[in-house]
Amino acid sequence: MTTDIGTRTLGIDSPLTVSTLGLGCMGMSEFYGTGDEDAGIATIRRALDLGVTLLDTADMYGPFVNEELVGKAVAGRRGDAVLATKFGNERRADGTRVGINGRPEYVVAACDASLRRLGVDHIDLYYQHRVDRSVPIEETVGAMAGLVTAGKVRHLGLSEAGPDTIRRAHAVHPITALQTEYSLFTRDLEDEILPTIRELGIGLVPYSPLGRGLLTGAITAESGAVGEGDLRRSDYFPRFRGDALATNLGLVDRVRALAAAKGVSPGQLALAWVLAQGQDIVPIPGTKRVKYVEENVDAAAVDLTADDLASLASAVPRGAVAGARYGDMSNIDD
């Protein structure tokens, strides 16, 4: 089955219409095992064929090579794609992490470098990847706004920003979207962040809407957490370690049972749950395989009843997930 996934609009003051769900491209180059450029390009092109327009990357993925991969994939099809990329997690070419950088002069230089790697004349949605607490957000967003004036960027976004930062940023220039982690397994933003962005008319772009793969049901205790070369094997992702993994896989089993009863995959059910949280939400499940793009797209056709949502709430109570979403949460703005 292939679904007409339709569109949703992110933001009110600076609206951007995109496909109902997007594609996270990070894992095609780094973090989740060995990258495969050809497979990544094929995956992106298949996504475009299926009506997925929002493609998400960042300069630090690779580093740098993920933007180049995305650029190759959209060559000749720029009109089919809404390109989103990010700056602020500064890395060197050898992968060394320099730190978070929100200085105005860096914003401009990073944007110019991303444009070159993507091979385009503008970025549709440009995010600050992480908040630089050493630089007033007004200065960073002021530089980002200058990119809009220059025609290099069309819309602005923030990633992992807290409520106060969001308000201050939005006062400088309309913020179209906030990107942060949101799924059945990660719901803390419902307390303050989600009400804040809805008050301001800012859309939500959830990354890891499948719990970094846990909610697909593909990861089991028998198969081991993940393969060699996958960062999820490390302490960086506590939810994949020891007793926490066992607890979380127990929750996945409950999702699996509900999905089977509905005739869908666990991942499709989990994505449908995210989509059901509001028309201002556009998740970006990441994958590097065509078959999973096809599966994810079909999640847009899964209608959840009130009883379905209640069953999911009972199966995965908020706060039931074991382990923090990152081993080091110090770079997450609150």
Brief sketch in words of this structure:
With 334 residues, the chain is α/β, with parallel strands linked by helices.
User: How are helices and strands ordered from N to C?
Assistant: EEEHEHEEEHEHEHEHEHHHH
What coarse outline follows from CA principal-axis ratios? globular
What is the tally of helical segments?
Answer: 10
* CATH fold-type name: TIM Barrel
| Strand-residue proportion | 15-25%
The number of E-state strands comes to 11
InterPro entries: Aldo-Keto_reductase, NAD(P)_OxRdtase_dom_sf, NADP_OxRdtase_dom
Domain NADP-dependent oxidoreductase: 21-315
GO molecular function: oxidoreductase activity
Protein name: Aldo/keto reductase
From the structure above, extract its key features.
NADP_OxRdtase_dom; alpha/beta; NAD(P)_OxRdtase_dom_sf; TIM Barrel; 334 residues; globular; 7-stranded parallel β-sheet; 36% helix; Aldo/keto reductase
